[in-house]
Design brief:
The chain has 5 helices and 10 strands. The chain has 155 residues and is of the alpha+beta class.
């Protein structure tokens, strides 16, 4: 998991501004579950694929040979290599929890309640209502990947 500051540079808990107007802002960069995910195209065994029903990009650990092509292809640096399993690994939006109708763990443990999960297309969902009230942003839009994770910056 990479952490970015508002300039989309990797950061390590560094405040911005001058005292007394000091603020700190960071964004967790997980798998963006891109519509045009380059990791899918670069996987030689087709171990990475996108589910049609919800758009989640999934890694089949049984098919993954650990070549790490997917990690190199990801412009977000969101795919890591699990040396114990010898396979690629990434956020799957806590698929195992969502099957039990639980929120992803990052939502549950976020101390500031800054992380939300839901279907932005469902107007009744909490994330759709948040997105309607605030300006949303996508990371690295110029990469042409069409990410599915939305960020809301401070006003």
């Amino acid at each position: 998991l990479r952490i970015l500051n508002p300039q989309q540079s990797i950061c390590f808990d560094k405040p911005a501004g001058k005292f007394p107007d000091v603020a700190m802002e960071w964004w967790p960069v997980l798998c963006q579950h891109c519509v045009a995910a380059p990791c899918i195209k670069d996987c030689p065994t087709k171990a990475i694929w996108q589910r049609e029903e919800d758009g989640v990009v999934v890694i089949d650990e049984d098919m993954c040979v650990g070549c790490q092509n997917c990690g190199e292809a990801c412009p977000y640096g969101a795919i890591s290599f699990d040396s114990e399993l010898g396979t690629a690994d990434k956020c799957n939006i806590c698929d195992h929890r969502r099957k039990e109708h639980l929120e992803p763990f990052c939502v549950t443990v976020c101390p500031t309640n800054a992380i939300h999960f839901g279907d932005v297309e469902d107007r009744e969902s909490k994330v759709a209502q948040l997105a309607a009230k605030r300006t949303t942003h996508l990371l690295n839009e110029d990469e042409g990947t069409t990410p599915s994770i939305f960020y809301v910056f401070r006003d």
